[in-house]
């Protein structure tokens, strides 16, 4: 390989400084976390592109409620399809009315144990002392942030490199627990 310069991988680089934001939503999230006991909150977040259909959202909600555990759930509605000149693309949006996608009465019944948000300040949430576990899609940045913050991962890969990342975390490194799901099926009771 003469003549080929050495290549070193750099990044992604974690922003572990200046992660504070002052929006009302951000302050509400961090205040809520600060009122929870140490390592008591399960954080569910599936990346900037991760979302589930209504049936899966309902099943997750039922499981959360039955568990009785505290939770912070970053819930985004399914992709809004857009056309591009290459392929159809989309991006998750914030829910306008969570009650349309959650079991009837879920928000009221779980209001003392959990909080549902849209976009999450993930690095700051993971670094908070109240977070005890992370249900993650295993995107590379999420994996790095969780490892850096020392938060255990429940691996729920959705697409792209996430399957490989989850495999490495669960099998090779032994630092994550798998959520047993076959691709394309609904995780149900």
TrEMBL record:
It holds the Pfam family UDPGT. Gene3D superfamilies: Glycogen Phosphorylase B (3.40.50.2000). The keyword Glycosyltransferase applies. Transmembrane segments: none annotated. The keyword Transferase applies. Belongs to the UDP-glycosyltransferase family. This is UDP-glycosyltransferase 71E1. It comes from Artemisia annua (Sweet wormwood).
């Amino acid at each position: 390989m003469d003549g080929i310069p050495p290549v070193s991988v750099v990044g992604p680089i974690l922003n572990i400084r200046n992660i504070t934001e002052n929006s009302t939503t951000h302050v509400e999230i961090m205040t809520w976390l600060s009122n929870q006991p140490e390592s008591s909150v399960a954080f569910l977040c599936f990346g900037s592109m991760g979302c589930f259909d209504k049936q899966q959202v309902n099943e997750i909600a039922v499981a959360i409620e039955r568990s009785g555990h505290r939770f912070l759930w970053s819930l985004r509605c399914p992709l809004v399809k857009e056309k591009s000149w290459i392929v159809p693309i989309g991006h998750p949006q914030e829910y306008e009315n969570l009650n349309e996608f959650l079991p009837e009465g879920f928000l009221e019944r779980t209001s003392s144990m959990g909080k549902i948000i849209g976009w999450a300040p993930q690095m700051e949430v993971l670094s908070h002392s109240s977070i005890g576990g992370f249900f993650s899609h295993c995107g590379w940045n999420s994996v790095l942030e969780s490892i850096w913050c020392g938060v255990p991962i429940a691996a729920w890969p959705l697409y792209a490199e996430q399957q490989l990342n989850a495999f490495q975390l669960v099998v090779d490194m032994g630092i994550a627990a798998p959520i047993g799901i076959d691709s394309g099926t609904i995780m149900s009771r």
